[in-house]
Amino acid sequence: MKAIFAEPLTQFLVLGLVLYFVLGSFAPDQLSVTNPLEIRVTDDKLREYLQFQRKSFEPAVAARLLGSMSREERQNLIDSYVRDEVLFREALSLGLNDNDEIIRRRLIQKMEYLAQGFYDDIPAIDESALKDYFSRNIDLYQIDAAITFTHVYVAALNQGGNQSARQRAAKLLSQLNKAAVTFEQAGQYGDRFLYNLNYVERTPDYVASHFGVAFQHELFLLDPAASWQGPIQSEHGFHLVLIRARSAARSPQLSEVAARVLADAQREQQNLQRAKAIDELTSKYFVLSPSLPR
Q1: Tens of pLDDT along 206-215?
Q2: pTM
Q3: Closest-CA residue to 145 (of 68, 84, 224, 86)
Q4: Structural domains in the chain?
Q5: Helix spans in the chain (H)
């Protein structure tokens, strides 16, 4: 008998039984196993579920939304939560999460969301912090140059017809200015153009995408005027232009872009918080790699 109790395995089993009965007498609930077929629906779980559904991590908003739901809306939310939970548990029971890169990526994304934290956890951005962020990132808010113009298009009718088209355009320019053709009357003259007739507050890149870079450069050198100007050659032919307005690129005042700057500053705070949280998680691990220097 003594030999049996001298065995390490027997000692381990006896110790386990003693711990089970001792701990069970003090905290039986801690030893109970959750029923895998039981789904507990609480307000906390519904609030979290709402936030993931809406892809918006604002606990206060989710709480208000949940509290304002009708009985039918709340039941629909519960049904949706239960459905997703059932499918999730069944997928786990079938081992569908094993070696599945898609599921792995989704779990990583979820952890990144959790690491990023909810909006309530991010310090409020005061005016001083907002100004600091704006000054550090002012290049992101540059307002592009813009131009408002209309044009009359003269097509090069055949290969090598640029000279003829230029002459036609020069003759038409004289007619347009003599008749004092207005912005609104431009469509009555010239050939049909592939793109637009009027361009309102368009950037250099936008103009270049329709006419070519060379045309865009030449156009933005011209000043607004009451008379028609040109001809300017594009990738399509020649154009006579009537420029109503042109503005240079500039740096805006904070007041002009405050809402956008605030959103970007909050996003930066979230990203910093996420990076910090992930760094803290990573610090718990030992990384072994043959490629790492020893």
Answers
A1: 999 999 999 9
A2: 0.56
A3: 224
A4: 43-113 (no CATH), 127-141+251-277 (no CATH), 146-247 (3.10.50.40)
A5: 2-6, 8-26, 28-31, 43-54, 59-67, 71-93, 101-116, 127-136, 162-178, 204-211, 213-219, 258-282
